[in-house]
Write a structure and sequence with these properties.
The complex is a heterodimer. Helices cover 40% and strands 18% of the residues of chain A. Chain A is α+β, with helices and mostly antiparallel strands. Chain A has one domain (38-122, 131-183): Alpha-Beta Plaits (2-Layer Sandwich), CATH 3.30.70.20. Chain B has helices at residues 3-6, 66-72, 79-83, 90-105, 111-139, 145-165, 185-209, 213-219, 227-232, 238-242, 249-252, 273-297, 351-356, 359-363, 368-378, 382-386; strands at 26-30, 42-48, 51-58, 174-175, 178-179, 318-326, 329-337, 343-349. Chain B starts with a helix and ends with a helix. Classes of the chains: A alpha+beta, B alpha+beta. At the A-B interface, helix 1 and helix 3 of A face helix 3, helix 6 and helix 7 of B.
């Protein structure tokens, strides 16, 4: 028993000198920096200045289908807008996430083929509004790519590299397609001239 | 009027009776909001004086339809739900589920992923057993202090897990045919430092308990579970090994790559509370041994089977049962696939639920205060019991 008391005493006095023995922080005044991989709730990434025009989401509804607690609700738009590659794409007319249902599992992030939805590290979301306070619409969910870079720097750089590569590929393809188009367009121009 | 008063328990006649309250039975309901029940769990206890003559466990307060939900979601969609079964050991739950789906779909797990799985599973076992010992001595009256030391060490393991997976408890880390993300060299270095320091912590922690008179008096010869009953009731995990039965799925099945590691299975002799307590202490030492070997041998390479698909995953029709040695016992998932994206049948074999079924047999004739620590020694998590 005396041995046990010695251990307790060692830990008690040790907590004054060693960080090892005192891991707690006084939360609202002191805060720990979140780890780089930390995930709380999803947000939508946008490029450029206009949050709604720059949304990467193309409303493919894969995340809506895969979401285990079914907290995502998407309505496709009727018209199209150009995406980062310049292709015309559908965009989400409505994109709601019920944060009170979301269980932060990150499956929407993993299945998204467009790198459009990512996890935020914001956790102080409590509200006294019982009815709509935790139902986030696309205006509230949209956050800039710079924000993404700030919270997950390594991952965001990787994603940017991948997107730039795809964009370059798409540009090369459109260029090639334009050239290919230009050639057949040039070719029938000659036979077209014949009947005339 | 109580059911028990009309129907006296069958062993009641055999038990020694107190002098003044002769034949007077007292029925009390312990829980569901009782700090020693480790969650929302209720025990209907019939007492004769201070001795337990009948005990009926009542559970289901935390039932949330886990199996039926899983039959309605995709295979991948069930993965985060398995975190919520035994929320202390999410990693082993992930592994058991991934193992069954891999059996079902015939996926191969790369070498590096297998090593990382062993590492995270043994870390989970370490933190589970550390906290269990903390809770166990808290039930005996050592309020707070040992539990806080246990939680301090658990915090370090959770920090590592947070850095790796992004969450502190609900990891959702394993994928069919591999893992979600790879570990970094920095992470492994930090883990190696933790493993080296853990032995020192265990020495200090054991100094608190070993040869402690109160602990010996409260645990030795209390809550004895016989070998025969344990086998008949299909008890698994440390509970079974404390009775002296050499059965550890890590050795029996050799799932993953456990055949490559050199470790021992600690066995008890009497099956009492003290043996169950010591089994966990010794198992932690063995876990540290496994972690050291895994850290030494971990190879470089891919962490995901290239054949594995994330979207549109449909295994062939068939059935599979995958089981692992979780910190609490045998955790198994039984799946039947009909070729659709959802499992046709999904069944969990939770260790703490089945270990709980013999609670009455262990508690009969014991003091009510011992019933509390007997329940603590079973190591239940109600998320898993009620599902």
């Amino acid at each position: 028993m005396i041995k046990g008391m010695a251990v307790t005493a060692k830990n008690f006095f040790g907590s004054y000198v060693s960080k090892e023995r005192l891991p707690t922080v006084q939360y609202p005044e002191e805060r720990l920096k979140p780890q780089e991989n930390t995930r709380q709730f999803p947000f939508l990434v946008f490029d450029g200045d206009d949050a709604q025009k720059g949304l990467r989401c193309v409303a493919c509804q894969i995340c809506e289908k895969e979401c285990p607690p079914k907290c995502i609700y998407i309505v496709k738009s009727k018209d199209k807008k150009p995406d980062y590659k310049g292709q015309a794409q559908i965009y989400p007319a409505t994109f709601d996430i019920d944060i009170s249902v979301c269980m932060s599992c990150q499956i929407c992030v993993e299945v998204c083929p467009f790198d459009a939805i990512k996890m935020d590290t914001e956790f102080e979301l409590s509200t006294d509004d019982r009815f709509g306070g935790l139902l986030f619409n696309k205006f509230k969910l949209a956050k800039s790519n710079e924000h993404y870079h700030k919270i997950h720097p390594t991952e965001a750089t990787e994603v940017d590299g991948r997107l730039a590569e795809e964009k370059a590929k798409a540009e090369a393809k459109t260029k090639a397609a334009a050239e290919a188009k230009a050639k057949p367009a040039a070719a029938p121009a000659v036979p077209a001239a014949k009947p005339a | 009027m109580s059911v028990f008063a009309e129907m006296p328990p069958k062993n009641y006649e055999l038990l020694p009776k107190g002098g003044d309250a002769d034949g007077e039975l007292l029925e009390i309901s312990m829980g569901p909001h009782h700090p020693s029940t480790h969650g929302v769990f209720r025990m209907d206890v019939v007492l004769d004086g201070e001795r337990v003559v009948k005990l009926k466990p009542v559970f289901g307060y935390l039932h949330r339809n886990h199996e039926k939900i899983a039959e309605g979601t995709t295979y991948l969609g069930s993965m985060p739900y398995t975190d919520r079964l035994d929320y202390f050991c999410s990693m082993t739950n992930n592994w058991a589920y991934a193992l069954s789906v891999e059996k079902l779909a015939g996926l191969q797990v790369p070498e590096r992923a297998e090593y990382i799985r062993v590492i995270v599973a043994e870390l989970t076992r370490l933190q589970n057993h550390t906290c269990l010992i903390g809770f166990f001595v808290q039930d005996m009256g050592a309020l707070g202090t040992p539990l806080m030391y246990a939680f301090r060490e658990r915090e370090k393991i959770l920090d590592l897990f947070e850095e790796l997976t992004g969450a502190r408890m609900m990891y959702n880390y394993m994928r069919f045919g591999g893992l979600r993300c790879d570990v970094t060299a920095d992470w492994l270095a930090r883990l190696a430092a933790l493993v080296e320091g853990y032995d020192k912590f265990l020495d200090e922690f054991e100094l608190l308990f070993n040869e402690n008179e109160i602990l010996l008096a409260r645990t030795q010869g209390v809550g004895i579970l016989s070998k025969e009953l344990a086998i008949n009731a299909s008890i698994t995990g440390p509970m079974l090994r404390a009775c002296g039965v050499n059965y550890d799925i890590r050795k029996v099945d050799k799932y993953g790559i456990y055949d490559r590691f050199d470790f021992k299975i600690p066995l008890g002799e009497h099956g009492d509370l003290y043996d169950r307590f010591m089994i966990r202490v010794l198992e932690m030492r063995e876990s540290i041994k496994i972690l050291r070997q895994a850290l030494r041998d971990i190879p470089a390479g891919p962490f995901m089977d290239p054949k594995a698909k994330l979207r549109g995953f449909r295994p062939k029709a068939g059935e599979a049962y995958g089981r692992i040695e979780a910190a609490k016992g045998e955790l198994g998932f039984y799946l039947i696939s009909d070729g659709s994206p959802n499992p046709y049948r999904y069944r969990v074999r939770p260790p703490s639920f089945i270990n709980l079924t013999i609670l009455e047999d262990m508690c009969l004739g014991q003091h009510i205060s011992d019933a509390v620590i007997i329940l603590g020694s079973v190591d239940i998590v109600l998320g898993e019991v009620d599902r």
